[in-house]
Amino acid sequence: MSKVAVLGSGSWGTALSLVLGDNNHEVRLWGRSQEQVDEINDNRCNVRYLPDVKLPDNIHAFTDLSNTLENVEVVVLVVPTKAMREVLKEVTKYLSVPVLFVHASKGIEPETHLRVSEIIEEEIPQEQRTSIAVLSGPSHAEEVSRRQPTTVTCSSLDMNSAERVQDLFMNSVFRVYTNPDLIGVEIGGSLKNIIAIGAGMTNGLGFGDNAKAALMTRGLAEIARLGMKLGANPLTFAGLTGLGDLIVTCTSVHSRNWRAGNMLGKGKTLEEVLDEMGMVVEGIRTTKATYQLAEQTGVDMPITKELYQVLFHDKTPEDAVTELMGRVKKHEVEDLKFGDGDPLNHLEP
Ligand SMILES: NC(=O)C1=CN([C@@H]2O[C@H](COP(=O)(O)OP(=O)(O)OC[C@H]3O[C@@H](n4cnc5c(N)ncnc54)[C@H](OP(=O)(O)O)[C@@H]3O)[C@@H](O)[C@H]2O)C=CC1
Ligand SMILES: O=C(CO)COP(=O)(O)O
Question: Could you give the CA distance from residue 100 to residue 132 in angstroms, rounded to a whole number?
C-alpha cells in the first residue's frame, strides 16, 4: 500500500485516483476548486468531470499542495500539458524527500518542443526525484471509471520504476504493460491527438470510413517518421501507446480531440469550439509544437502541416483535404531509419 498524490482533478486525474483507490492505496487528489474538493470529500463525486461515478473512500481531495504532498512516495501528474510547468514550479517547493514522478498527460510543449518527462526533468531538481515515468495508452476516463477493461503502458528510462508503476495501477480491469521506449510512448500518446482532430474533421465534413482509415494510417506513418527521427523504436507505434491510442481517440465520441475536429469540420471556429468543449483539447497546442518540430527536423508531416494551417491560419478544412489528396504521387512504404542505426537492431530478440 502506498501513499500517492494525484495532481489534477479533471476526468483523467479522477479516473486514475479511482484505480489507485480500488488498489487500496491512500490517494491524495489535488484540485483547484474548493467546491469540487468538498464534493469529492463529502459526496464521493466529481460532479463536473465524472458525474455518474462514486469514488472510493480512500481518496481525499485537497486544494493546497503542501497538504496533498505530505509524506507521499509517488506523485502522479495529470494536469493539461500547458499547466505542467507552473504546477511543477509549485510542487518543488514542498518536497523534502525524493519521490517517483509519474505523468499521464499527452502533449508536447510549443516553442520548447519538450515532452512532459523532459519538462519534469527541467523543473524538478534531481535530489527531489527518484525517477520519472509515463502512463499512456487507449484509456477514456469515462470507461476506466466504470471499471471497464482497459490496457495501458508504463515507460521509464529506469525499468524498476516502470515496474513499480505497473504494480501500483494494475488490477483485474486495468492491465498495465511496460515499455522502455520513453520517447516512443510519449510521442505516440501526444501526436495521436492531432490525428484525432483530423478524424473528427473528416466526420464533420460528411466523409465516411474510407477517409477516417486513410487519415489514421497515414497519420500513424507520419507520427512514426518523426518519432524515429527523435530516436524512438518503430515497434512502439504499433503498440498500445501508438496504434492503440490512435484507434480509441479517432473512433470514439468520448474523445475531446475528435469532438473538437468534428465541430471544426462542420464550420465552427476554433474559439467557438473551445468555448463549447469546456475541457482540455491537447491536440491543438500539440499540432503547433509538432508542426514546429517537423520544420526544425526536416521531417515530412503533411497531415500535421494541413491541420496547423486550419487551426492557426484560417485555412478551410475543405482546402486542407484538397491539398492532401493532390500531393505528388509516391510509394506507400518508406525505408525505415531511426536514431543512428538499423531498426532491426532495436527489436527484442
Ligand atoms: N480524459 C481522458 O480520458 C484522458 C486524458 N488524458 C490526458 O490527461 C491530461 C488531463 O486531461 P483531463 O483530465 O482529461 O482534462 P479535463 O479537461 O477533464 O480536466 C482538466 C483538469 O486540469 C485542471 N487545470 C486546467 N488548467 C490548470 C492549471 N493552469 N493549473 C492547474 N490545473 C489546471 C482543471 O482544473 P479546473 O477544473 O479547476 O479548471 C481540471 O482539473 C491531458 O493531458 C489528457 O490528454 C490521458 C488519457 C485519458
Ligand atoms: O487520450 C485519451 C484516450 O486514450 C483521451 O483523448 P481525448 O483527450 O481526445 O479525450
Answer: 6
Correct CATH for 183-346 of 3.40.225.10, 1.25.40.10, 1.10.1040.10, 1.10.10.10 = 1.10.1040.10
pTM listed for this prediction: 0.96
Does the ipTM surpass 0.85?
yes
* Closest ligand to Cα 241: 2
Give residue-wise pLDDT tens across range 125-179.
Answer: 999 999 999 999 999 999 999 999 999 999 999 999 999 999 999 999 999 999 9
CB of 186 closer than 6 A to ligand 1? no
Ligand nearest to the CA of 259: 2
SS3 72: coil
